[in-house]
Design goal:
single chain; alpha+beta; five-stranded antiparallel sheet; 22 helices
């Protein structure tokens, strides 16, 4: 008997049936939605494993059928070689369609040849990737290879203001051995001695499994200019010299603290500069201009990623990026002046800065003793590296970067601050005293001087470099005005310069002590000055009170760093400093000549534990300027340990020839 439904029951059935149908439909939709989301997540997780170089995990993410086609070792090695070879990174995956678990998606990634994008397809089975080689690139088959061809960018040159190369491409010899032509290992001892290697290191290099009898096996690189070493090496059977391009520094020690040097990258460098084209064999600027302008000098290597078949024929090109050679960096340096200043003090521990006072261009930047940047290209033996680091003269120390006790070069600055703040009268006679203290509260502390001129006004005090005058002047100027003046000179502030410099400093807390205020007036006390900043300050005396921003990279733009003094103040100081040179009692009289008018101030910075200490050392200073507007220049030189060698006169005599040669050009 059939079931009889009333209309009421039928409506109820239909209602219930409709609800069931809706639930089923929603479940099916959710299933597909969740399935789709899971498939997309599976795909994106797989690419995340590529980014994280988890190649074993990638293999475990493959479907069972895919794993039958590729064993784990083959899969891992192939994926690692390809993805790391093309330097793949920053994957972005966008799924555009999904049908029956087949995903269509776009891939975007960064590579050694730039950004690569392509569309691809894959299937997900039970949460696993159905994989073959076309997953890597759509055109790639199991028998194909991915080839990366690189075109190395030429590193930019570092040039002086006249285009003379300070750093750039040069030639050297790669010294290597051809095993089939060797006299066994009989010559390894001689070879090791000539090249600064060890016999053991040569044996280890020559034991590599890839070496054939006719293989050239490189050992090291040597300068192509060392003809004596070249001839000695070529007398040894099996030695071969191949010409290679290297970074070279034609002026060697003369410019090394300025240009800096290069070294092979470290693991830390590779981590820091990830994705910037560095490899384990890359060189990187480590100091000086080489480091400060690494990005501009380096350039960008060109690269091509292509797919080649089993015969080596190109099937397709995945991506190509043209190389961009590095930029040349032109400096404001005059290499002739740089070399002359270096040679004048090459046996000293010194710093020299030359500057154009009208625009802040640094014409020379010297630190002695120095090292040779070329040595970092060719490499050091352990003994050579230890000798360089343990040298008591510290050739690796950059002295123009540091700060030093300024001595009497500070007197001109004290005077200018006093004149500018109307707290010093240039005509006032402070009285001639060889030994002085303000009052008995100073105990047994006295300011002493070598010369006490009469009348003891500002001009004579600068000519004779009278310590007592400037101690009295500092107290008359007062703590507040001195501090105001130091701040106007940017003492204590970072120095705006392309290379890192230690900032000059004074200890304001010490200005509560009158003795320290007095000492600061003649450059002792708690003041330390950087040679570049000292040159900038003296430049203001030649530039109507304007301190131009110092710079060593050539630019059409110039700027005023500070404007601490009025033209009236600097006219007075400049006039007095001319007399320091032209008056036969002046401490820089040795610079006097009939051809050029010069203005100068000498200084001797004492470094000792107490006033009675006779074992301390002395720093010799000179700041000298040409007053000729057609040949503007200020040179500041600091030399360590001039005690017993003529003091600041030693510096004056050293600077004279480089300065005159520059002015006569």
């Amino acid at each position: 008997m059939g079931v009889v439904y009333t209309n009421r029951n039928r409506k109820k059935y239909i209602a219930i049936g409709g609800l069931v149908a809706i639930v089923v439909i929603v479940a099916v939709v959710l299933f597909f939605l969740l399935s789709g989301n899971n498939n997309e997540s599976t795909l994106k997780n797989f690419y995340a494993q590529i980014s994280e170089k988890k190649y074993e995990d990638m293999y475990n993410s493959l479907s069972s059928e895919s794993q039958k086609s590729y064993d784990q070792q083959t899969f891992v090695e192939r994926n690692q070689n390809i993805y790391e070879g093309i330097e793949a990174s920053n994957f972005q995956i966008e799924v555009t369609d999904e049908t029956d678990n087949e995903l269509t998606y776009n891939v975007k990634m960064n590579t050694i040849a730039g950004e690569v994008t392509f569309e691809n397809k894959t299937t997900i089975e039970d949460g696993k990737i159905v994989w073959d080689d076309s997953f890597i690139f759509p055109d790639l088959t199991q028998n194909d290879r991915v080839r990366v061809s690189e075109d190395e960018a030429i590193r930019g040159q570092i040039l002086d203001r006249n285009g003379k190369m300070l750093a750039g491409q040069g030639e050297a010899y790669s010294v290597g051995l051809v095993r089939g032509k060797l006299n066994g290992e009989n010559d390894y001892d001689q070879l090791a001695e000539l090249l600064g290697l060890t016999k053991e290191s040569i044996q280890k290099t020559m034991s590599a499994s890839w070496i054939q009898d006719d293989s050239f096996v490189p050992l090291t690189t040597i300068p192509s200019t060392d003809t004596q070493l070249e001839n000695q090496l070529l007398q040894i059977p099996g030695v071969q010299l191949n010409t290679v391009e290297v970074r070279t520094y034609p002026y060697g020690e003369v410019t090394s603290h300025l240009t800096g040097y290069m070294q092979q990258v470290t693991a830390e460098d590779l981590e820091k500069h990830q994705g910037e084209g560095y490899t384990e064999t890359s060189m990187i600027g480590r100091s000086g201009i080489e480091a400060a302008y690494e990005k501009q000098l380096k350039g960008t290597n060109g690269a091509t990623i292509s797919i080649v078949d089993e015969n080596g024929s190109t099937k397709s090109t995945v991506a190509t990026q043209e190389k961009q050679d590095g930029q040349d960096i032109t400096l404001t340096i005059d290499i002739d002046l740089q070399r002359d200043l270096y040679n004048a003090f090459d046996e000293d521990q010194s710093a020299s800065v030359a500057m154009n006072p009208t625009n802040g261009e640094v014409l020379a930047l010297v630190s002695t003793p120095s090292f040779d940047s070329n040595d970092f290209i060719y490499g050091f033996s352990t003994e050579e590296w230890d000798d360089l680091n343990n040298d008591e003269d510290q050739p690796l120390t950059n002295r123009f970067r540091a700060t030093w006790v300024p001595g009497s070069t500070m007197k001109s600055i004290t005077a200018a601050i006093g004149l500018e703040t109307d707290s010093l009268d240039a005509s006032k006679d402070f009285g001639a005293e060889m030994k002085w203290q303000k009052d008995s509260s100073w105990g047994d502390y006295f300011v002493t001087t070598l010369h006490a001129p009469n009348p003891n006004n500002l001009r004579n005090a600068l000519i004779y470099s009278d310590n007592v005058y400037f101690a009295k002047a500092a107290l008359e100027i007062g703590k507040d005005n001195l501090e105001k003046g130091y701040k106007s000179l940017m003492i204590g502030e970072d120095i705006p310069f392309e290379l890192a410099l230690t900032k000059s400093q004074y200890t304001s807390d010490s200005f509560d002590d009158e003795i320290l205020i007095a000492d600061s007036g003649y450059g002792q006390g708690q003041i330390l000055m950087n040679p570049v900043q000292m040159t900038s300050i003296y430049s203001s005396f030649m530039n109507d009170g304007k301190m131009m921003t110092p710079h060593v990279v050539k630019s059409t733009e110039t700027s005023v760093w500070a404007e601490p003094f009025s033209k009236e103040t600097t006219d007075e100081i400049k006039s007095d400093l001319i007399q320091v040179v032209e008056d036969n009692n002046g401490t820089a009289y040795a610079l006097n000549n009939s051809q050029y008018q010069l203005a100068a101030k000498t200084g001797t910075g004492e470094i000792k534990d107490s006033q009675d200490d006779t074992t301390g050392t002395e720093l010799g200073w000179l700041s000298v300027a040409s007053t000729d507007s057609s040949k503007p220049i200020v040179i500041t030189t600091m030399v360590e340990d001039v005690k017993g060698r003529g003091g600041s006169n030693y510096v004056v005599n050293g600077v004279k020839q480089p300065l005159m040669s520059y002015l006569q050009k």
